[in-house]
């Protein structure tokens, strides 16, 4: 298999340059949902190339929404900034440093995102319909609760929903704003909190036409309530790995669909997430554990013709990550991939940066099972062979793949 795959890569890959990025846009065609991945949360090139592709999708294909693997309240600060809701006194750097305070801060508070944020703010000044930038993750349980209560408290005309929200969120008060404490308590928890939070979201949705759309206040309250409902379910399922993973990715799909509904069903949306979220899980060994992900669900809901998934990979370099959860960030060396891996094969086909496009004619050539590197916010290179390679059928997992032979760590705005 090794020699055959290396030859196929040599024959069908394109050097990574402006022309090959144009080939990706051509392959995207009329797809309305473009999912752009990353093989780590700490690699500069993944961020900068993803931003460059997004700029082209905005300018050449009219994409209007970017949905990212970040928390709704924090990312809303970026959205307000790029749409001009925050006035001109702020800066992208200030917004990112002040809004991303929970570990791992470097995922969004970095120079690469700062540069794209400033570009998008400037670009939006020339657009009649401004491009939005939204977070679709669910770790912001308490921040989202605060946002819902603040909105309803400041709008007394929604008194019924305010009382409903106070009752629903009272369930979380004993846990000192620490979701992990809530997760540990759920073995002894009644169903009342679950039903109350779900009922609140239903009530808010039934009244959403009454909310002001100024600065997207109506969208903000609905999305924060959605986070609270699904975060509750996520933390309740934390001790069951497959179930909590699926709860999280299902939430992200629900959030994407809310954004599509809000902006119009024909809206074109860009999704920024890790490869493990946007690369179709049914084409990996994740399916053996009952895991699903955003990429798989979006393909199932919208069909292959309307979706396009772009994966990333690297052979070696440096990355920002930490030794364990909550530890200080470090610049960590990424060792060369073994020849038997997807990244090792790409390197063996030539130590240069390249892209591959997959379609019905060539997918099977790249569909033999092979380990594909995935680096998270916690990374221990010495154990890489045991947990950082996801067995995948790459040709069907993605629609395009971007390979950077040697990568460097992204640049955090704060340590």
Write up this protein.
This protein has 415 residues and is of the alpha/beta class. It folds into two domains: 2-137 and 268-407, EreA/ChaN-like  fold; 141-242, no CATH class. It is built from 17 helices and eleven strands. The chain has helices spanning 2-12, 18-28, 44-61, 72-82, 92-99, 111-124, 141-154, 159-169, 179-185, 192-207, 217-236, 241-263, 275-278, 294-302, 342-348, 384-387, 394-397, and strands at 14-15, 33-36, 65-71, 132-137, 269-272, 307-321, 330-334, 354-357, 370-373, 389-392, 400-407. Strands 1, 2, 3, 4, 5, 6, 7, 8 and 11 form a nine-stranded mixed sheet that branches. A two-stranded antiparallel sheet has the order 9-10. A hairpin with an 8-residue loop joins strand 6 (307-321) and strand 7 (330-334). Helix 4 (72-82) runs antiparallel to helix 5 (92-99), helix 8 (159-169) packs antiparallel against helix 10 and helix 11 (217-236) runs antiparallel to helix 12. The longest helix is centred in the middle third of the chain and has 23 residues, at 241-263. The model is unreliable at 181-190 (pLDDT under 50).
């Amino acid at each position: 298999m090794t020699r055959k795959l290396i030859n196929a890569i040599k024959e069908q890959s394109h050097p990574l340059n402006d022309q090959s990025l144009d080939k990706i846009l051509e392959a995207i065609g009329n797809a309305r949902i473009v999912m752009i991945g990353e093989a780590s949360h700490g690699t500069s090139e993944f961020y900068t190339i993803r931003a460059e592709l997004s700029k082209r999708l905005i300018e050449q294909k009219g994409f209007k929404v970017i949905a990212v693997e970040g928390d709704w309240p924090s990312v809303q600060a970026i959205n307000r900034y790029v749409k001009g809701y925050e006035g001109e006194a702020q800066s992208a750097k200030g917004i990112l440093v002040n809004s991303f305070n929970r570990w791992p801060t470097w995922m969004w508070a970095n120079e690469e995102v700062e540069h794209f944020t400033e570009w998008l703010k400037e670009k939006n000044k020339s657009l009649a319909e401004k491009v939005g930038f939204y977070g679709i993750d669910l770790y912001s349980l308490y921040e989202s609760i605060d946002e819902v209560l603040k909105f309803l408290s400041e709008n007394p005309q929604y008194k019924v929903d305010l009382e409903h929200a106070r009752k629903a969120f009272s369930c979380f008060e004993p846990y000192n704003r620490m979701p992990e404490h809530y997760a540990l308590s759920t073995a002894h928890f009644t169903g009342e909190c679950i039903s109350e939070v779900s009922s609140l979201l239903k009530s808010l949705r039934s009244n959403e036409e009454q909310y002001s759309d100024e600065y997207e206040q109506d969208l903000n309250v609905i999305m924060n309530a959605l986070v609270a409902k699904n975060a509750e379910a996520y933390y309740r399922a934390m001790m069951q790995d497959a179930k909590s993973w699926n709860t999280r990715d299902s939430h992200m799909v629900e959030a994407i669909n809310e954004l599509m509904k809000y902006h119009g069903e024909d809206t074109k949306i860009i999704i920024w997430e890790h490869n493990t979220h946007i690369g179709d899980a049914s084409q990996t060994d994740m399916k053996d554990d009952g895991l699903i992900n955003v990429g798989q669900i979006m393909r199932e809901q919208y069909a292959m013709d309307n979706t396009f998934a772009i994966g990333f990979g690297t052979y070696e370099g440096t990355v920002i990550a930490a030794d364990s959860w909550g530890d200080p960030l470090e610049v960590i060396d990424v060792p060369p991939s073994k020849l038997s891996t997807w990244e090792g094969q790409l390197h063996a086909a030539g130590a240069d940066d390249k892209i591959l496009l997959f379609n019905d004619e060539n997918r099977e050539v790249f569909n033999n099972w092979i380990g594909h590197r995935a680096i998270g916010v916690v990374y221990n290179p010495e154990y890489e062979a045991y947990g950082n390679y996801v067995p995948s059928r790459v040709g069907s997992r993605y629609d395009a793949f971007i390979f950077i032979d040697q990568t460097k760590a992204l640049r955090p705005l704060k340590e």
